[in-house]
From TrEMBL:
SUPFAM superfamilies: FAD-linked reductases, C-terminal domain, FAD/NAD(P)-binding domain. Keywords: FAD, Flavoprotein, Oxidoreductase. Belongs to the GMC oxidoreductase family. GO terms for molecular function: flavin adenine dinucleotide binding; oxidoreductase activity, acting on CH-OH group of donors. Residues 220-332 form the Glucose-methanol-choline oxidoreductase N-terminal domain. Residues 427-551 form the Glucose-methanol-choline oxidoreductase C-terminal domain. This is GMC family oxidoreductase. It comes from the Bacteria.
Length: 569
């Protein structure tokens, strides 16, 4: 029998970036908020002396335990989906702060083209440009509407950056861009000579000491090279632990409960009443009642909770009805590696988002009329720092082990460069999330099932973007270049970028989307879903800046709803 707890104004499921932003904003307004996080509590001090590459980067210390909760995977409907015990494609964060603790810090923002992608594609190229199986739809929001929230997010986070020549903004980043290394300088000079438009990547790593509008002060980045997969012991990387969560906790209106795994959202007569969760340490079960329920977990968890709670209509790829589980998409890497015989770079140092990017082949900044795909990707070079275990690259033809491998990997440790694009998958009717009919998690709830594969769109875009990366690498003067423009089936056991979106998508029509542009669920309007699961399509950049901006907009909507409960417009 579950213990029923006193009702609060808001219960937040998943205390990462989105959950932290919502908690800070609502508690500042006086609302009582309970934050439920299935992992353990974390603080900056936990990461002192934490530069253990094996523990964090390879054994995934900060990630979800796949032996207890995972998902099943298949490429197509006729295949049997099986539980995944290795997911190199994803870094599923767990614990307070979520994936915001171990992210790199890239804070690019989605394009207006992304938010209105169907309309803008048809306006420029005609409806025939969209393949029959591509379930492309607008988000029901524009860049103009979301722009103020972008600004709020980067000021809270202390983002370091400079103006993008192809899309200058009316405001500047609160901190100047990060240092320019010799590798970055070479990329800037080379791409400018090619007629392209490079800019230093916007970074969640502080370029200088900074105090944000909430009065939170943090120290500058030390360029230690332990960002992705690691927590930051300096507090220099913008994450929920050092930005929004201290603000929520300082109000006295926020109660954080770690080790609390939410199993379902409870609802009756079209209204949510609360959530049922289990204390993972004791096995005790609780019901937390609330006026508003917020799902702000990872893409998979948000979708799984709605499906298991029977909120919304599950997506059916045959009839293309329903929306919960629809439009799952990811990034894939298009890249070119270069090795330099006569030049060394200081690759032992770096930061998660230290780099240079260009938008010339992203979105619709280039003409797709004669191309057999839409969209593209941000092209970047980054200097995250080459850690010893994962940095043993050598040119093609080098043996995979033995004396010659050691010699070549040591020689090229400081003589390598990667030009890459995070090329987006476009939504496809056959790429979706559903509940698995066979496999369950440790609490008896059906696992989420992923059905995903690449289409001609992805293969064509991959070939194009790989060739652009290789062209830049040739101009950089590399003596050995490795670029592979062919890809097989989608495989979550191999490395691809870990930016899963979709499943609880945003839109204007309740028949084809799960939430409106305030992240409010159409069918149960006191439930709000935050995070990348609400993205109706993927972009050529990292999702965090857009995720954060939408969370700030949702906070305004939830405040309005608590004052006058209704569907927001």
């Amino acid at each position: 029998m579950a213990t029923k707890l006193p009702s609060v104004d808001v219960v937040v499921v998943g205390v990462g970036w989105a959950g932290g932003i919502i908690s800070a904003e609502l508690t500042k307004k006086g609302y009582k908020v309970v934050g439920l996080e299935r992992g353990k509590e974390r603080k900056t001090e936990d990461f002192l002396n934490g530069h253990d590459e094996l523990k964090y980067a390879h054994r995934k210390e900060l990630m979800q335990d796949l032996s207890k909760d995972t998902l099943t995977f298949r490429n197509k409907d006729l295949e049997e989906a099986l539980p995944m015990r290795k997911m190199s494609a994803f870094s599923l964060g767990t614990g307070v702060g979520g994936a915001g603790v171990h992210w790199n810090g890239f804070t690019h923002l989605f394009l207006d083209y992304d938010f209105q992608i169907r309309t803008k594609t048809i306006e420029r190229y005609g409806e025939s440009k969209i393949p029959e199986d591509m379930t492309l739809q607008d988000w029901g929001i524009t860049e103009e509407l979301i722009e103020p929230y972008f600004k709020t997010f980067v000021e809270m986070a202390g983002t370091s950056g400079e103006q993008n020549p192809l899309r200058p903004r009316s405001w500047d980043y609160p901190n100047p861009p990060m240092k320019v290394t010799p590798k970055m300088k070479r990329f800037i000079d080379t791409t400018e000579e090619m007629g392209l438009n490079p800019f230093i990547s916007p970074s969640g790593n502080l370029s200088q000491n900074y105090t944000n509008p909430d009065g939170v002060s943090r120290a500058a980045c030390q360029y230690c090279a332990f960002c992705d997969h690691f927590g930051c012991e300096y507090g220099a990387k913008s994450d929920p632990l050092v930005t929004v969560l201290p603000v929520a906790q300082s109000t006295g209106n926020f109660e954080l409960r770690a080790h609390s795994n939410v199993l379902e959202v409870l609802h009756e007569n079209g209204k949510a009443t609360g959530v049922r969760y289990i204390n993972v340490l004791t096995g005790e079960e609780y019901i937390q009642e609330a006026r508003v329920v917020i799902l702000s977990a990872y893409t998979f968890t948000n979708t799984k909770l709605l499906l298991n709670s029977k909120i919304g209509t599950p997506y059916d790829p045959v009839t293309q009805t329903g929306a919960v589980g629809k439009n799952y998409a990811d990034h894939f890497l298009s890249m070119a590696f270069g090795f330099f015989d006569d030049e060394q770079f200081n690759d032992y140092a770096g930061a998660g988002a230290l780099g240079v990017s260009l938008d010339d082949y992203n979105g619709d900044f280039f003409d797709h009329t004669e191309l057999d795909f839409i969209h593209g990707g941000l092209i970047s070079i980054s200097q995250v720092g080459n850690r010893p275990i994962g940095s043993n690259l050598a040119p093609l033809g080098t043996p995979g082990w033995g004396a010659e491998f050691k010699k070549q990997s040591l020689y090229y440790y400081n003589r390598q460069m990667m030009v890459f694009s995070q090329t987006p998958m476009m939504p496809n009717r056959y790429n979706y999330l559903s509940l698995d009919p066979t496999y369950k998690d440790e609490y008896g709830m059906p696992l989420l099932r992923m059905t995903v594969n690449y289409s001609k769109q992805e293969n064509n875009a991959h070939k194009f973007m790989t060739n652009k990366c290789a062209e830049i690498m040739e101009n950089l003067g590399a003596t050995h270049i490795m670029a592979f423009d062919q890809q097989g089936d989608y495989n979550i056991g191999s490395f691809v970028p870990e930016h899963s979106i979709g499943g609880t998508i945003m839109g204007e029509d309740p028949a084809t989307s799960v939430v409106n542009n305030y992240s409010q669920v159409w069918d149960v309007n006191n439930v709000f879903v935050l995070g990348a699961s609400t993205f109706a399509s993927q972009s050529g950049v990292n999702p965090t800046g857009t995720l954060g901006a939408l969370a700030y907009r949702a906070a305004e909507g939830i405040d309005s709803f608590l004052k006058e409960p209704k569907l927001l417009v």
